[in-house]
Q: What sequence folds into this?
């Protein structure tokens, strides 16, 4: 096998092929870990059901199983692309790492706010973590979260955003790839929309299609139909966003604004715990959630809605890329 010849402009950047291979192998290992989590979750769910003398309810873990299976395929595919110095792999890994880092930062912030109450809350059996051990558990949990949600994606961002990495991929993969047709900030929106469409599919599969709808909760056939409509819109906007069609930007803003208003109106009147109950969560999980103040007083909902503000701000920033071409 012959080694690709770098272009004459190679002198102005450092060849990061070894780094691309090392990070690619790391990403592949992450994919293998995600694949391993699928049977582990199934086994753990069966063991937990037997311990509680209940029938295993696999429907409730379908979203997590699909997510980890999807991540396994994506990470292995992207890792292989990185080892081959493919432009598309570098672009998608950078987008995914940024999304992972941002969501991880938000999730860690939520964890810092709500973890003390979670640790103090007793289980359905009336037990809770002894108070002297809570600081240790807090440090361990936050430490693991720091590594998984901040350090790992942060390392991927720092590496794949490097101009040397970008130039290496362009030199060793001189063919124009599909990711080159879309600016990376816009490609990130397209990925979020595609993931949103996948998430909508899990509602009918696992959660009885229960959805907030402008002041009330709907379920059954009407909710399933609404899920499919929203999913179809997200699929179209993901594709149209990638193609930089101006209509996609307006539909995305309108769709997410409607979803946020619908959630705000609903949870101003309906308790969050009622949605979980209609979704069919097991009694033991319901008992735990009912003890959590931030679930009862809806504060977690309002924080989640507030978390949507940066997304809308980001949409405003990328609007300049949606130019109607002649």
A:
């Amino acid at each position: 096998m012959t080694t690709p010849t770098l272009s004459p402009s190679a002198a102005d950047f450092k060849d990061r092929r070894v780094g691309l291979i090392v990070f690619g192998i790391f990403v592949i290992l992450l994919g293998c870990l995600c694949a391993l989590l699928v049977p582990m979750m199934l086994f753990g769910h069966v063991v937990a059901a037997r311990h509680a003398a209940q029938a295993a309810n696999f429907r409730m873990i379908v979203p997590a199983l699909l997510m980890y299976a999807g991540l396994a395929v994506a990470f292995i595919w992207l890792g292989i692309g990185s080892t081959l110095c493919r432009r598309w792999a570098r672009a998608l890994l950078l987008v995914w790492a940024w999304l992972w880092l941002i969501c991880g930062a938000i999730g860690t912030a939520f964890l810092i706010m709500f973890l003390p109450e979670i640790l103090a809350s007793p289980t359905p059996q009336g037990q809770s973590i002894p108070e002297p051990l809570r600081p240790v558990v807090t440090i361990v949990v936050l430490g693991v979260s720091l590594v998984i949600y901040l350090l790992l994606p942060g390392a991927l961002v720092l590496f794949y955003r490097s101009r040397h990495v970008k130039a290496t991929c362009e030199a060793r993969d001189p063919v124009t790839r599909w990711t080159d047709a879309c600016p990376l900030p816009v490609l990130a929106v397209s990925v979020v929309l595609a993931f949103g469409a996948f998430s909508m599919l899990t509602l009918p599969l696992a959660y009885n299609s229960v959805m907030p709808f402008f002041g009330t909760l709907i379920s059954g056939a009407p909710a399933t139909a609404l899920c499919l409509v929203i999913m179809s819109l997200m699929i179209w906007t993901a594709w149209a966003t990638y193609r930089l069609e101006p209509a996609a930007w307006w539909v995305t803003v309108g769709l997410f604004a409607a979803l946020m208003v619908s959630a705000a109106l609903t949870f101003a009147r309906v308790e969050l715990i009622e949605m979980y109950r209609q979704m069919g969560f097991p009694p033991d999980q319901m008992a735990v959630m009912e003890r959590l103040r931030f679930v009862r007083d809806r504060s977690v909902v309002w924080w989640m809605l507030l978390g949507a503000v940066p997304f809308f701000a980001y949409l405003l920033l990328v609007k300049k890329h949606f130019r109607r071409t002649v």
DSSP finds 13 helices and two strands in the chain.
